[in-house]
Specification:
Largest sheet: 6 strands, mixed
Helix content: 40-55%
Order of helices and strands: HEEHEHHHHHEHHHHHEHE
Structural class: alpha/beta
Distance between the termini: 33 Å
Radius of gyration: 20 Å
Strand order of the largest sheet: 4-3-5-2-1-6
Number of strands: 6
Number of helices: 13
């Protein structure tokens, strides 16, 4: 749950020798190569021109997979229903009040912080029906946007690829369903643990901002190893994600995706766009695909 960098810095870092966000997957019976790209919610859409080989990779595939079929259009009944389902998942039971989960000191402090970051009034009074995890997410997004004041949420890098596929008439699909993501993101821990992590976020704002800075710099430098290090920083307290929480949020998902990917790639050459934090490490998607018999190499200019 743990992200401006000026354009000149972004371009300079992206040229580093170790820079790599796009990977080719081949071998193990595949007739044509597929590709995996590490994305980031707060990267600008201009990143598409900063990654060597990205356009060529997109032009060579027959379908695109994201984590979720997430380009939603509220003017359609099905997408409106999906968004309603996701909003409902962010609510607490009517019988539970946020003030019963958070002590007065944190309640008032988080209220002030949300007001200052989102520029709204009567924040907690109006949003006390939201779960602590939903409030944590809102707060993390607001803090990140403060560090990237020029970022336009309507022009997100990670939303580009499904839109590209649909514009080209290609299948645009997801590795997870909406129900699966709801279970992972909003239903995977108790309200008490959610409240504990929300209070931890408030108590550790300087380290949160430092971690966010580290993730931003690592991503824009396209350095997955550095990104992994930034995301793995620990405080040594109960504020850290437990191994079970890390498995639910990252590693179990990686395993489920890698289980699906061979059949998907055998059907059609595929462009996968998933969060960059899922790619590195021994339990990351890249290494798991290698262990499954595929050749996975960075795409070079």
């Amino acid at each position: 749950m743990r992200k401006t960098v000026v354009v000149a810095l972004l371009c300079w870092l992206a040229s580093a020798v170790s820079a790599q966000l796009l990977y080719r997957v081949s071998g193990n019976g595949l007739q044509k190569s597929s590709y995996i790209l590490g994305t980031y919610h707060f990267a600008p859409i201009t990143m598409v021109d900063s990654i060597p080989g990205l356009h060529q990779a997109l032009e060579s595939v027959g379908q695109v997979y994201g984590e979720l079929e997430e380009v939603l259009d509220i003017t359609t009944a099905s997408d409106a229903a999906t968004m309603q389902k996701m909003m409902q998942a962010m609510m607490m039971p009517d019988s539970v009040k946020l003030s019963s989960l958070i002590d007065p000191y944190h309640y008032q402090g988080i209220d002030s912080l949300l007001k200052s970051t989102l520029g709204l009034t009567m924040m907690m009074a109006e949003m006390s029906h939201l779960s602590p995890i939903a409030l944590s997410t809102m707060l993390e997004v607001a803090l990140t946007l403060q560090q990237q004041p020029d970022f336009n949420p309507e022009q997100q890098f990670d939303g580009y690829f499904l839109r590209y596929a649909r514009d080209k008439g290609m299948p645009a699909k997801g590795l997870e369903t909406v129900d699966e993501q709801i279970a992972i993101m909003y239903k995977g821990m108790s309200l008490e643990r959610q409240a504990q992590l929300l209070m931890c976020l408030y108590d550790n704002l300087p380290s949160q901002k430092k971690m966010t800075d580290g993730v931003l710099t690592a991503y824009f430098s396209q350095d997955l190893e550095r990104l992994e290090q930034a995301m793995d920083e620990k405080t040594g307290t109960y504020c850290d994600n437990t191994p079970e929480e890390e498995n639910r949020l990252i590693y179990d998902r990686n395993a489920r995706w890698v289980e699906q990917m061979p059949a998907i790639m055998a059907e059609k050459p595929t462009f996968f766009a998933v969060g960059a934090g899922h790619l590195p490490g021994e339990r990351g998607v890249l290494q798991m695909l290698r262990r499954a018999g595929f050749t996975v190499n960075g795409v070079k200019p």
